[in-house]
Amino acid sequence: MGIIIDILKDIPLTAVLREKLSDQEKKMSVLETENSSLKDENSNLKTIVENLRKEIQRRDDIIQKEKSRGNLFDDIHIKILSHLLLSNVREHSSDSISRSLKLNPQTTKLHIEELKLHNMIKFKRFPPSLYISQEGKQYLIKNKLVS
């Protein structure tokens, strides 16, 4: 077989094929380098995407917290606040509020206490009466519950 190889070395076609093979090996080397570079870039992009996902989740959590603060009170709380704001009656008691809104007196008292804790309503000693505070008015307006 050594003689055949020696013969093929002398044929011009073999030189052309060797040249093509050499070119292909160079191209392959360039492609391998580019592939390696792209793999590194892909890894970096995956890290960036993961960090962006975490940031989006963090911001979504903040938005949810803000929304939950905005909806601090349920319908009964809002009815009581609206009643205190819009009623023409000067003096309000928990009983008068429960009668006006057709609510259970105990439920009304519980909600009034919660509203007091959040400074949404205040108690005036003389004459004894409940009234909506500035914070309560702002809450209703901010949450577009009254206009």
Q: What does this 3D model show about the protein?
A:
The model has no long low-confidence stretch (mean pLDDT 83). The protein has 147 residues and is mainly alpha-helical. Helix 4 packs across helix 5 (105-117). It has six helices and two strands. Strands 1-2 form a two-stranded antiparallel ribbon.
In short:
This protein has 147 residues and is mainly α. It has six helices and two strands, in the order αααααββα. Strand 1 and strand 2 form a beta hairpin.
Tally of strands: 2
**Low-confidence runs of at least 5 consecutive residues:** none
Largest sheet composition: 2 strands, antiparallel
Number of domains: 2
Trace the largest sheet across and list its strands: 1-2
Can you tell me the overall shape? rod-shaped
Query: Strand percentage, roughly?
Result: 5-15%
Q: Which radius of gyration do the C-alpha atoms yield? A: 40 Å
Task: Give the oligomer, counting copies of the same chain as homo and different chains as hetero.
Answer: single chain
Tell me the series of helices and strands, N- to C-terminal.
Answer: HHHHHEEH
Q: pLDDT average, as an integer?
A: 83
